[in-house]
Specification:
This protein is mostly helical and 245 residues long. It has 2 domains: 2-53, no CATH class; 61-240, hpI Integrase, Chain A, CATH 1.10.443.10. The protein has 11 helices and 2 strands. The protein has helices at residues 2-5, 11-30, 51-54, 61-75, 84-98, 104-108, 143-148, 164-177, 191-203, 207-214, 231-240, and strands at 119-122, 132-135. The protein has a two-stranded antiparallel ribbon with strand order 1-2. The chain is globular and about 55 Å long.
């Protein structure tokens, strides 16, 4: 199967398929669930692209404006093939990603107690440093009430990739539903995170503030901060950040 994929799909896609499989077998072997690891000899091809080409590209401000307008049209009213609950959830998640810099899975895993009128609390994320408090952007002031009403519960019925529904529908929005489609394959749902980073930079936020909001750990000369900037400082910079400008 691996050999059939090499040369026909991107190396990153091959890694996306095989890495979870290798991880499951490694865990099962380590826990003595299986006596042999059939994946131990499977080697994945190296991605020879420059690091810049592997990253998701951010959206330009004009693109963000068009995306949010298209999202309002696409998901602001009943849509064929989507329940109202799922449609509203996809719309809300895209809006929150646009104005928070969060990872998609971080939004979907939120509980009602994690969201207040002032902030969003992210725990149990990608790394230890990802645990953080993100001030609530004024553009998503309706998010706390929506979460409290059970808005995110629609994703609980998905037993595999909980982000998949949002990613799929957002991809269709970009490539098929917008009047002027965004066809660059390196611009996708995860691009909203780097888009918010660029918007913070344009607003004037320094690297300390950016990392505190994004949950990035700093190594080398600039060390990680015990508690990060004071909340009011973070809130002022989040309020000043607009990915549409």
């Amino acid at each position: 199967m691996r050999d059939d994929l090499i040369g026909t799909v991107q190396v990153s896609s091959i890694h996306a398929v095989f890495t979870p499989i290798k991880g499951i077998f490694a865990f099962a072997f380590d826990e003595d669930i299986i006596s042999e690891n059939p994946m131990i000899g499977v080697r994945l091809p190296k991605d020879k692209r420059p690091i810049e080409e592997r990253k998701w590209k951010p959206f330009a401000p004009a693109e963000v404006t068009r995306i949010l307008q298209a999202a309002d049209r696409q998901w602001g009213a009943p849509a064929k093939g989507l329940s109202d609950a799922r449609r509203e959830a996809i719309h809300m998640v895209v809006r929150v990603l646009s104005f928070s810099g969060m990872r998609p899975i971080e939004v979907i895993r939120l509980k009602p107690d994690d969201v207040t009128k002032a902030w969003i609390r992210i725990t149990g994320s990608k790394t230890e440093s990802s645990t953080r408090i993100v001030p609530l952007h004024p553009e998503i002031a309706d998010f706390p009430e929506w979460v409290a009403s059970g808005g995110l519960e629609t994703f609980q019925s998905i037993k595999t990739d909980k982000v998949g529904s949002v990613r799929h529908n957002f991809g269709r929005l970009l490539r098929e539903k917008m009047q002027e489609p965004i066809e660059d394959p390196q611009k996708a749902l995860y691009s909203l995170r780097s888009t918010f980073v660029n918007a913070m930079r344009r607003a004037g936020a320094d690297i300390q503030v950016q990392r505190a909001i994004l949950g990035h750990k700093e190594a080398g000369a600039i060390r990680h901060y015990d508690d990060g900037p004071e909340f009011e400082v973070k809130r002022n910079w989040v309020d000043a950040t607009d990915p549409r400008k």
